[in-house]
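> forwarded from #structure-qc
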């Protein structure tokens, strides 16, 4: 999987957050809202997410992690050093008498 350059992700995330603040200050301004939505769309495409909020969260996680760690997180693979359970947990039986 190709990953975007961290510098570009950081730039687009800053742009999205800046327009988010402007949009919250002027929610009825259509130009501001359109620019904010455009910045969210760009972040969605860059991070491969469908929702701008998910894309912003993914961008923040990506910027904090190593590329390999981010890919493992996205693939749902277990983290190194963690033990994955291969069998279901044992059933627990109640000691209370049945009615």
């Amino acid at each position: 999987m190709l990953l975007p350059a961290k510098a570009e992700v950081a730039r687009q995330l800053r742009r999205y957050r800046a327009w988010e603040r402007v949009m919250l200050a002027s929610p009825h301004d259509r130009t501001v809202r359109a620019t904010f939505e455009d910045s969210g769309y760009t972040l969605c495409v860059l991070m491969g997410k469908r929702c701008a909020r998910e894309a912003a969260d993914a961008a923040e996680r990506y910027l904090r992690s190593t590329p390999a760690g981010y890919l493992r997180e996205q693939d749902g693979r277990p983290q190194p050093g963690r033990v994955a359970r291969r069998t279901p947990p044992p059933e627990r039986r109640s000691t209370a008498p049945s009615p």
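QC bot note: DSSP finds four helices and no strands in the chain. The mean pLDDT is 83.
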